[in-house]
Amino acid sequence: MADPGGSRPVTVSDVQQLVKRKDEIEAQIKAYYELLGQKGVGMTEPLVDAEDFPRGDIDIYEVRTARHNIICLQNDHKALMKQVEEALHQLHAREKEKRARDEAEALAEAMGQSQPRAFARVNAVTPGSPASISGLQVDDEIVEFGSVNINNFQNLQNIATVVQHSEGRPLSVTVIRSGRKVHVGLTPKRWAGKGLLG
Length: 198
Hints:
Interacts with PSMC3. Part of a transient complex (modulator) containing PSMD9, PSMC6 and PSMC3 formed during the assembly of the 26S proteasome. The protein has 198 residues and is an alpha+beta fold.
């Protein structure tokens, strides 16, 4: 979990772990409530009879322990829900910043302030493949492939990694075609041919 100091950003995986922990706590609370229900008591019934003697029809220790555990777990649940909320806020804030950055970059590009440099060229496109269906063409110069661009591209393994992690999800691909910038939506997926792109 990322701390407010920001040692590392919150990821979707962090949120999923928090939600899993929340579900576990809720299951434990439910189990303790069921135990109390079997004993015929809830959280507030007195554990002494009319003459202030411990009730003989229930296991007092077991009931008190269950009540105590429910209260502790409810406190843990409340704290965990606060963490989930903060984590979701951080994720959404980061997504909002990214969108604003993307829009600013798009605006800068639209104003012709920067002609991006390509880092790869499409040599072949197999007919009927995901690449072909998306509209990629031979000799397209790749400027951006998902998160890969001229600034972080090292070798074709970078693209292979993005493709593997994006199977079934659309990727934004930007190419230069005949001197014009073209955006293509490419969804890597299994098909009759080799690989996820073709």
